[in-house]
UniProtKB/TrEMBL annotation:
It comes from freshwater metagenome. Coiled coil: none annotated. Residues 35-146 form the CcmH/CycL/Ccl2/NrfF N-terminal domain. The keyword Mitochondrion does not apply. Keywords: Heme, Iron, Membrane, Metal-binding, Transmembrane, Transmembrane helix. The keyword Iron applies. Belongs to the CcmH/CycL/Ccl2/NrfF family. GO terms for molecular function: metal ion binding. The chain crosses the membrane at residues 12-29, 109-130. This is Unannotated protein. Residues 140-161 are annotated as: Disordered.
Length: 161
């Protein structure tokens, strides 16, 4: 294996480690303590209006959304449930899918993370391919090319008549 190739691997591994660390910090970061109103706003922004198309309970002024917002507000003000438990409670009482934002764990997280990971791997592969193509000496024949041309010259008849 080429020594230059071995020298490049640590830098690629370092970049991969930094990218993974940044993704983990971004997804697992906790914003700290929040007020009840902040929690209510956060939850209502993640819950879909049951009758509107593409609107959150936070944005919608529909009667069904107002009822959901009041229920979420009551559950938060009781102070017994976490945000995820409030959403689960509201979802259990509904016959339609209410989550606008996927869960951050399990299969839902994987469905959102895999396309991003595939795109990163694809761009890295393209970068490596372009780097290889740029390093190739275009227009300079290899020894195999020269041998083929010499063999063709020897077997070809002379057409100088």
């Amino acid at each position: 294996m080429n020594v230059a190739v071995l020298k490049r691997w640590p830098s690629w591994l370092l970049m991969l480690g930094i990218a993974v660390a940044l993704i983990l910090v971004g997804t697992l970061r906790d914003g700290g303590a929040r007020s009840e109103n902040d929690r209510i706003d956060s939850i209502t922004k993640r819950v879909a209006c049951p009758v509107c198309s593409g609107e959150s309970v936070f944005e919608s002024r529909n009667a069904a959304s107002v009822n959901l917002q009041n229920r979420i507000e009551d559950l938060v003000r009781e102070g017994r449930l976490s945000d995820a438990e409030v959403i689960a409670s509201v979802q259990r009482d509904s016959s339609v899918q209410l989550l606008l934002v996927p869960k951050r764990t399990g299969f839902d997280a994987m469905v959102w993370a895999l396309p991003v990971a595939a795109a990163v791997v694809a761009f890295a592969g393209l970068g490596l391919a372009f780097r290889k193509w740029m390093g190739a000496e275009d227009g300079v024949p290899s020894e195999e090319d020269r041998a083929l041309v010499d063999a063709a010259r020897q077997t070809a008849p002379d057409d100088e008549s």
